[in-house]
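Whether sequence alone determines local backbone shape is best considered at the level of individual chains. For completeness, the protein is quoted in full, as a sequence line and a line of structure tokens:
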Amino acid sequence: MNNYTNDNTARRYKAHVSPLGTTQLHLRNPYIVAWWSAAFPGFGHLLLSKYLRGYALFIWEVFVNIQAHVNSAMIYSFQGNIDMAKEVLDTRWLIMYIPVYLFGIWDSYRTTVDMNRVYILAEREDHRFNSFSLGAVELNYLDKRNPILAVVWSLFIPGLGQLYIHRLLTAVFVISWLVVFFYFSHVQEAVVLLFLGKVKEATTVLNAEWLLFLPSQYGFATYDSYINTVENNKLFEKEMRQYLTERYQSREFPLTNKLKGEVNQLRVFSSFETTSYLEMAMSTLEKKGIRKENIFVVPLDKRKEDRKVFDTLHRSDGTTLIDIGMALATAFSVIGASIGFKLAWGPIYWGLIGAIAGFVLGFAIRLFMELVLKKKKRRLKGKHSEIILIIDCEESQAELVENILWNHFAIGVARVNLHV
């Protein structure tokens, strides 16, 4: 059996790498997923990689929302003009809109709870999954990427963050609909007018109904790219630790200093982060004549912390401070853009102000929850060791071995003379 290919020998496995992207199971907060379905039906399902259901709900939302004039009613409501909000709504479409909207929220919550249970079972089964896929039109592989870069690209153009992490199905869908929203909202024209200082003209040129789709589009793309970058990094680390343990923990490796009577022998110790450079270093060592049996790898366990089943806060240890912030940024941006049509600075500026204020408030709430309501935990800053590498070599090879390790970004290297 090929240990690096998903097959039917396991009831469940945690991930699948294909030319179209990396699909994986991991713990998610069902309330956060349900929130994104409330912000824009379909987004909660896209977070779960339930693409067909997500696409269907998304397209339904756009079509029926426009026909029922839901966004226009929201704008009038936030401005305090309730009578106009009632007048603008088309109840024939609204009656169809509400059940599907509520279904999207309920189904994304239910699916998240179910998938969390499946993830726990798959984690216990711990079946190997593929980490590389090469096809005729595209290739995909697990590697570490920077979550901040994913966020930055998403803020420029929603969907670019997904392209950065090879989440192609979401990227193409988000970018395609962004073009539609840009075109019908005339937001690009309004931005140019704002740069020229023509605030009133910028407000006049905007189509309010289509404009209100954009905050959710930006918020979701940013959150999705960040979350999936972190989860892909964790998946890469786990797969590499499994591979190194299987390949470089030979029973023939002498853990004592009795090295079969050999003299002039050194033992080189080094520490690494879990990156592809580590695997490149191992491959280079073997190519230069260091036998696999003389290399021993010890993956270090990370500090254990209590974690609830639905907790998907993401930092380096599996948590984040941005989930509430991104949710409030999206909501406040919609409110800011709505009332901005009646304020001097216009809907774009007030939408941005609302987004910033919402994110800061959400970030502060999460920070308060982490620092005050939970026990404070000391965290290491900067690079930290995740893998210990032990290499036995002849004294004449020591400098070569050390150079290879340093050239592949070892955190620390030391040698011990094993002469008797």
Residues 91-125 form the longest helix (35 residues). The beta strands are 15-18, 21-24, 132-134, 139-141, 265-272, 295-299, 387-394, 412-417. The longest strand covers residues 265-272.
